[in-house]
Amino acid sequence: MNEIDSLEMAVIDRNAEYWGVEPWELMEEAGRKVASEIESNRSVTLFCGKGNNGGDGFVAARYLFEKECDVKVVLVGKERSIGTDVARDNWLKLKNLDVTLIEGPRKEFYNDLEITSDVVVDAILGVGIKGRLREPVKSAVQAINRAKKSRIVSVDVPTGIDPDTGKGYGVKSDTTITFHKKKKGLNKAKLVDIGIPDKAETHVGPGDLFFLPKRKENSHKGENGRLMVIGGEEYTGAPALSALAALRSGCDLPVIYTKGNKDTISGFSPNLIVRDIKSFDSDKIYKSSSKFDAALIGPGLGRNSESMEEIRRLIDKLDIKKVLDADALHACKKTKTLLRKSIITPHSGEFESLFGKKPSKQLIKEFADQYNCIILKKGKNDIISNGDTIKINESGNAGMTVGGTGDILAGVVSSLVARKDYDFRLTAAASFIVGKAGDQIKKDLGVDGIIATDLLKEIPKVRAEQV
C-alpha cells in the first residue's frame, strides 16, 4: 500500500497505540523530523492547531529552539481547547523555554499580521479534518499565504487541503512533510518515518473498527441491515447462533430459512425470525432475496446430497452479498467458481478440503485472488485476504475451539457486510471483535468452560469499548 486515505491513516494510528507505540512517542518523532527539515539559526513562526497536528508543531518548536532558532508559536485557539493530553503536555513544555507564545488571537490579529520569519510552519489541521475552513483558521491560513518571502512547511498535510482528493482552499506550502505513508491527495510531499510498527497495518486492531457501520438516529426497522441465514437442516443450533450474533452486531432483521426445523430453531429465542422452506432452491428464497442485503449460507446445513445440489444452484443464482460457511463450502468443492464475489470462512480442515492444499498466508492470498473472493481462514491466528492484501488477527484464545464459535463469527461477518461496503475491512473487523469477546470471557471464566452463547453479550461491549 503506497498511498493511503485519511480513514486508513486513522486506523493505523489507533492500531499503532494498540500494538504498544504510545501517541506521545509518535508525536515526539514527528516533531523532531519536522524540525530536522529546517536549518539552524533561522527565524521560525509556527501556527499550531488544537489537535495532534498542533502537538507535532509544539514538539517541532522545542527542537527548533534547541537548534538556536528564533521561535514564535501561534496557538490557533485557546489553551483550554487543546484536544488531547499529549498535545497539551507539549504546549506546556514550551512555557519553560525562551519561546514567544501567542495564544488564541482574534481574527483581526491575522488580518494585520505581516510575517517576516525565514520559515513558517503550518501545523494547524491534520489528515482527519475536512471541509471548508472556519474562523480563526481561515484567517490564519490567509496570513500564512501572504508570507511570500518565507519558506512554508506544512506538517503532514497543508491545512485546508483534502488529503484524499487534493482539493480545497488551504495553505500554499513549499514543502509538506507527511508521515508513514503518502496521502492520496498530496502529489508533492516528503515522506518520513516516525516509528509506526508494521503490525499497525498487517494485523487487525481496534482501529479497524473505524470501518464499522454507524446506526442513524432516525433510522427505521430494516434500514440497518437485512440478512438471510440459510441452513439448519442437520444442526439446528448453528443458524440460531449466527442470527443472534447478527443481531448483537447491529443487524436489524436476520431471517433464518430452513427445511423442516422451523419450530425447533424458533424455540431457541423469541428474537429469532424463522421461515420454513421446501427446498433451498425454492422460488420463496429468490423472491424474498430482493428484500435483503446479504445472505449467510451454510450454518448447520448438513451434507444431504439433494440439499447440496440445491445449495449450489442457490449460490449461483443469488445476486446479493454472500457469506459461505461450513457445509456451503463443501457444496462448492467441485465447482469453486461458485466462490466468486463471496466471503468464505473456512477453518484449516475446510480450507484443505476445498482447495486441496494446507493453508498458508501466501496460498490464502493466491486463492482469494484466483476466485475473486474474500477468505477468512479461522485458526489460532485468523488470516484474512481479498487477494490483494493480507490481514492477521491475533485476538481470541484456546477456549474458543468449542462448537458454535464459527457460527457466531459467520453471523458477525454477515451482519456487518449487510449494513455497509468495505467487505474486506469489515470481515477483518468481525474477526477481531469475536476474538476480543472471547478474550473478555476468558478474563472472567478462564480458558476452560467457554461456550458459544457466552460470546453474544460480549460482542456489542467490545464494539462500544474499542471504538
TrEMBL record:
Residues 204-466 form the YjeF C-terminal domain. AMP binds at residue 406. PROSITE patterns: YJEF_C_3, YJEF_N. Gene3D superfamilies: 3.40.1190.20, YjeF N-terminal domain (3.40.50.10260). The keyword Signal does not apply. Bifunctional enzyme that catalyzes the epimerization of the S- and R-forms of NAD(P)HX and the dehydration of the S-form of NAD(P)HX at the expense of ADP, which is converted to AMP. This allows the repair of both epimers of NAD(P)HX, a damaged form of NAD(P)H that is a result of enzymatic or heat-dependent hydration. This is Bifunctional NAD(P)H-hydrate repair enzyme.
